[in-house]
Amino acid sequence: AFMTLLPLTSNRPGVSARFLGVNLRVGYHLAFLPEPWQLTLLAGGYYTTTFVTNGALGFKNMYGPQFFPVLGRTLASGDSIAGYFKYSPILDGTSLSFASQEIAMGGAWNQRLSSGRTLSVLLDYAKLKLAFNNVYFIQSESWTLGAGYSY
Fold this sequence. Notes:
Elements lengths: L1 E2 L13 E14 L6 E16 L9 E13 L5 E13 L2 E18 L5 E15 L3 E14 L2
Antiparallel strand pairs: 1-2, 2-3, 3-4, 4-5, 5-6, 6-7, 7-8
């Protein structure tokens, strides 16, 4: 799950947009790559919506399938790195609309701490394009820097 806590820029003065999204994926680890490499293919679904000042723009309640391959490598230190690509066509009613889609890519670094816990840093780029009747388009690009700590 993700949510924009603090939007940093806007092309419209006085208008800010925040995003909320949920992803649900299942995956299969492909064993043909030699250790320390790992390739996992994930697929699933997503839901996303926006919260915009005065409802000036944005979208509501979008969902659809997603394809999400992840390539990772465990380092000699026990830390790991990973890169991924995500493709998500958007459902338009009951059919897929390939004119509307999200494409994202990113990378993560995971450091194993002496306690056995993991500290993670993630950088993600996403581009969302929505087409309405193939005439009206909304486009959003975002960069996300995230951090995580596992128990």
